[in-house]
Amino acid sequence: MTAKRILVVEDEKAIRDMIAFGLRRAGYEVREAQDCREARARIVDTRPDLMLVDWMLPDMSGLELTRSLKRSKETEEIPVILLTARSEEQDKVSGLEGGADDYITKPFSPRELLARIQAVMRRAAPAGAADVLVADGLTLDDSSHRVSAGEREIPLGPTEYRLLHFFMTHPERVFSRGQLLDRVWGGNTYVEERTVDVHIRRLRKALEPFSLERLVQTVRGAGYRFSTRDA
Amino acid sequence: MTAKRILVVEDEKAIRDMIAFGLRRAGYEVREAQDCREARARIVDTRPDLMLVDWMLPDMSGLELTRSLKRSKETEEIPVILLTARSEEQDKVSGLEGGADDYITKPFSPRELLARIQAVMRRAAPAGAADVLVADGLTLDDSSHRVSAGEREIPLGPTEYRLLHFFMTHPERVFSRGQLLDRVWGGNTYVEERTVDVHIRRLRKALEPFSLERLVQTVRGAGYRFSTRDA
DNA sequence: TTCGAATGTGACAGTTGCGTGACGAGTTCA
DNA sequence: TGAACTCGTCACGCAACTGTCACATTCGAA
């Protein structure tokens, strides 16, 4: 897993440096911005995983920035933690109403900051909805992370599991190698397309002992398909 | 087992939010009230399993509220934990005399709060209603805080106990390290995710002499799972 | 049938994830 | 006060997993 990127929007350089220092030590990749205008530029070119935004900024309040981010489809999913100087109750209320995911009052300990960041990021990762998928004799229970044929469990590696999960949630459809890389591996990984073949092979091999390999079908010239109907 | 309901009675919104936030992340259902009047309304319509009551409230002191609750048949069984700003011995004494089940001074850590809540709920559980969890040869008796295999008791540290308890109340499900930190350690703590591994290890080690370590299973790339079915 | 392109398959080396023992700091209890 | 716990972190090592390659096989168009 690559390092998470955090964008720190804070006008006071001293504070910004301190925060950045602490975050880098904790293994995050840090980008900085002095004001809202610069923040917007950074958002576009670094696509941060989380933002720390000071309440008081020279050009526009952090709250307004947050609000406007949450209004845009592009940016609404980026979690925001607001930094405020005083623990004014009113601020907190409007901060959360404005769409911030958490707030923290200065002064704060590095540990507290890290705790909030971790908590917010965890929350941002949504819990899956569909739980038990069934196709022919094959069952995939996502909550227990088990795949089985009847009573017998089928051991799968992480990638094979994700691949099968994707297929079972999108049955009867052909996906090109490129599409599979996007949706199963994740948009910004670069691996050879033929790598997909290998994992298809591994998945089939795991299904073989149960004669279920026919569920994973090759569509020559197009890609692969998961289907209960025979090819 | 459905989620336990906790009613938080605290006038300062900031503190209330923080507490509620932590409790929700730990899996509780949280209701909030700003003062004693509102608290009474919530008690009636939500029947909480436990109450957290601030000492200083605008309309009536938390102590008085507690006293009056303990006088009524309807409400005397609801456990109450008092929150106070200072750790004055005097307060503590009168707090407990007033019928509170426990007492915690601000500031407190999320884990401390969770620990007290669990302890109080355990104590409050009616003696007869054995909340004993069993899985294979393993028994966890929450009322006596004992874990045993057959006749032999298994010694566990506090964290290992909470971990096992959480697992046994959520069997057959995979939890990531992050989720475990949320639900076992408490929502706002920052510790390395690998710390979970170490406690898993300690738990397994304690179960080893009874060949029960297989109940705690690793799901590579996903987290850990408690299951009686073999991996 | 033949040939080139697409796909299947086994092996390999680098990487990652997890298990494990050790250690220092902080707590609790006698 | 000191001994016994407990906790979080670290470093090391192994086993599982990953991506890539080379070679084999299959398919379809001509």
Task: Give a description of the structure.
The structure is a homodimer of 231-residue chains. Chain A is α/β, with parallel strands linked by helices and 231 residues long. The first copy, chain A, folds into two domains: 5-124, Rossmann fold (3-Layer(aba) Sandwich); 132-226, Winged helix-like DNA-binding domain superfamily/Winged helix DNA-binding domain (Arc Repressor Mutant, subunit A, Orthogonal Bundle), CATH 1.10.10. Helix content of chain A is 40%, strand content 21%. Chain A contains eight helices and twelve strands. Chain A has helices at residues 13-25, 36-46, 62-71, 89-97, 110-124, 158-169, 177-185, 194-207; strands spanning 5-9, 29-33, 50-54, 80-84, 102-105, 132-135, 138-141, 146-149, 152-153, 174-175, 216-219, 223-226. In chain A, strands 2-1-3-4-5 form a five-stranded parallel β-sheet, sandwiched between helices. A four-stranded antiparallel β-sheet of chain A has the order 6-7-8-9, covered by helices on one side. Chain A has a three-stranded antiparallel β-sheet with strand order 10-12-11. In chain A, α3 links the parallel β3 and β4. In chain A, α6 (158-169) packs across α7 and α6 crosses α8 (194-207). The A-B interface holds A 87, 89, 92-93, 96, 102, 111-112, 114-116, 118-119, 122-123, 143-145, 153, 157-158, 161 and B 12-14, 17, 21, 25, 172-174, 178-179, 181-182, 187-190, 219-222, 225, 227, 229-231. Chain B binds a DNA duplex (30 and 30 nucleotides) through residues 157-159, 191-192, 194-195, 197-202, 204-205, 218, 220-221.
